[in-house]
Amino acid sequence: MPRDLRHEEPGAYYHVCSRGNDGRSIYMDEFDRRIFLELFAVVTRNHGWVVLSYCLMTNHYHLVLQIPDGGLSAGMQVLNGEFSRRTNRRHGRTGHLFRNRFFGEPIETERHLLAACRYTVLNPCRAGLNALPGEWPWSSYLASAGEINAPVFLAVGALHELFGTRPSHARAAYRRFVSEGHGLVSDTRTEL
Predict the structure, then answer these.
(1) How many domains is the chain built from?
(2) Other C-beta atoms within 10 Å of 189: how many?
(3) Is 120 among the domain residues?
(4) 151: nearest Cα among 73, 39, 67
(5) What is the domain range of residue 82?
(6) For 146-180, how does the pLDDT look when each residue is reduced to its tens digit (9 = 90+)?
(7) 85-109 in b/e burial notation, b at 16+ Cβ within 10 A?
(8) Within 10 Å of residue 170's Cβ, how many Cβ atoms?
(9) What residues are paired with 104 via a beta bridge?
(10) Which residues of the chain, if any, have pLDDT below 70?
(11) Which residues fall within 8 angstroms of residue 136, CB to CB, at 6 or more apart?
(12) Is 91 strand, coil or helix?
């Protein structure tokens, strides 16, 4: 029996996650992560997504994005499908790289949006991979905090607008907000 189609609301925000099949790694090395981010940039541009936050872990990834014109499922199919094909070719693998369908939770309030962005960049800390979010190079934290240049697909300005109108104050408020949530991160909830 076919699965029900996902309901997508153009203009809505989503917290998206996709996990490796059987909990396996989806990124074997830095090159895999760079390829993923390049594909993500193409998909983001082609579908008009507004990306506020992302984090590439080892066996999964998180995205927080807005879909002005819809296209979440179509874009995710391209992203996960093309990355799977490239990864399998590169590493001599066969079969599914990703487990089932991606998780896509609609975000309905600004509070939930902020919590999802914070949850995403604190994921490596929660997993014990590093003590501080700035120590993990595969998330949007450093760019959003103003520590490095943002990748082309990351809408840092849109994120900063949630924290203030002056860029320097918005960056500082973002850093404080993430730091304040360091001990609040939960495995099951992204809402404060």
Answers:
(1) 1
(2) 11
(3) yes
(4) 39
(5) 13-180
(6) 999 999 999 999 999 999 999 999 999 999 999 99
(7) ebbeeeeeeeeebbbeebebeebee
(8) 20
(9) 16
(10) 1-5, 184-192
(11) 55, 121, 124, 125, 129, 130
(12) helix
